[in-house]
Amino acid sequence: MIFENIKSAPKDPILGLTAEFNNDIKSNKVNLSVGVYQDNNGITPTFDSVLTAEKILLEKNYSKSYKPIDGDKKFLSESLKLVLGESIYEKVNNSSFGLNTPGGTGALKLVSEFLSRFSQKSKVWFSNPTWANHKPIFESSGFKTKEYTYLDFEKNSVDFEGFITSVTNIPDGDILVLHGCCHNPTGADLSNNQWLELSKILKNKNIITICDFAYQGLGSGIDKDAKGVRILVENLDDLFICSSYSKNFGLYSERVGCLIYINNRNRNIDNLLSQLKKTARTIYSNPPAHGSNIVTEILQDSFLKKLWKSELKTLRERIQIMRISLNSNLKERNCMKDFSYIVEQNGMFSFTGLSKQNVEKLKNDYSIYIVNSGRVNIAGITTNNIDYIADSITKVVNN
Ligand code: LMR
């Protein structure tokens, strides 16, 4: 029987840690691994805007029949408007489309499966470092993956010169994956000028660009976080964007995302859409309904949209306060490592520069769970656990 020879797969580097955390019996355990927002009580709240939208949906008694393969038109136009902003949306309305996907991961898988049908020999380039699931998604579609320079590991900020040199040298026909904002895992983002410089280089290159955009609104604001993506849209001939509603609507388990394609070359986009639908049909057939109905309900209703924006602002501000607080708490304890860059980094994550040994020790001795790379989910820090976290990190680093 062939199944007898199957070896166990390694634990998922992010979700596997949460499974370990759930089994940990220590009362002071802290989960700073998976990118899930927690409020100051350590709870992952459901947004009031989401709960209200759910009540409205219940009253509407909507049908559970299949959605179109690419999703509902209203969901798609609202998704494009959110990512692109109204004015760019108006401009590219006829040269763009979206597909509602099961989460941002679904959008990445859809574009990777699609590209594997038409561009199998391309190599796929990711930042060093990148989200732990990026390479597996594309490698499981048959691609070889490569890394471009991104982080200056000494300073824990973007090595822009190295990045530009690296991107300039990507061969024609290859695929480039960028992070639109709140870079995962580093929290180190490009400035608007750097996005502009990058887009000028990409414009003259014959490569396929995909922008992973899973944290809109978690960094500096809904529109501010989209600035880089919008600069790319205005300057490149083609662009794929993988957006997600997991974090900014707290709809993690509902699996709501959108794959967006924009073309500025007046190419016939209908053929492309038809092929993407064909690919979607073979992986998940059509998107889950409940989460995307919630998003549509909120984005279409001015009251709910305003409520959602203010809820998202609360999340964002709490994360920023925790960044400042963690840094100052570590300084107060005379931690021998300078963590000042945590304050500058953006979004849920910080790349702490903690070594693998430090991370192991924090897990084994203190039940503090951090991704192996040293990535910390700042949104898991609360006023209740910050002393414990700062004490433990200081002990481990100063030891
Ligand atoms: C993360 O990076 O922690 C999140 O995007 C969750 C995931 O699926 O890995």
Notes on the structure:
Helix 5 (103-118) packs across helix 11 (269-283). This protein has a seven-stranded mixed beta sheet, with helices on both faces. Strands 1-12 form a two-stranded parallel ribbon. It contains 16 helices and 13 strands. By secondary structure, it is an alpha/beta fold. The structure holds (2S)-2-hydroxybutanedioic acid. Residues 14, 34-35, 131, 133, 184 line the site of (2S)-2-hydroxybutanedioic acid (LMR).
- How many extended strands? 13
Q: Which class of secondary structure composition applies to the elements? A: alpha/beta
Distance between the termini: 51 Å
Instruction: Give the strand order of the largest sheet, numbering strands 1, 2, ... along the chain.
Output: 2-10-9-8-7-3-4
How many H/I helical runs?
16
> Shape from CA axes?
globular
Descriptive key words:
399 residues, two-stranded parallel sheet, binds (2S)-2-hydroxybutanedioic acid, alpha/beta
Furnish the topology, listing elements before pairings.
Elements: H1 15-23, E1 30-31, H2 48-60, H3 73-84, H4 86-92, E2 96-101, H5 103-118, E3 123-128, H6 134-139, E4 144-149, E5 151-152, E6 157-158, H7 160-168, E7 175-179, H8 192-203, E8 208-213, H9 222-225, H10 227-235, E9 238-244, E10 257-263, H11 269-283, H12 290-300, H13 302-332, H14 341-344, E11 349-351, H15 356-366, E12 368-369, E13 375-377, H16 386-398
Parallel strand pairs: 1-12, 3-4, 3-7, 7-8, 8-9
Antiparallel strand pairs: 2-10, 5-6, 9-10, 11-13
Helix pairs in contact: 2-12, 2-13, 3-4, 3-12, 5-11, 7-8, 8-10, 12-13, 13-16, 15-16
The protein binds (2S)-2-hydroxybutanedioic acid.
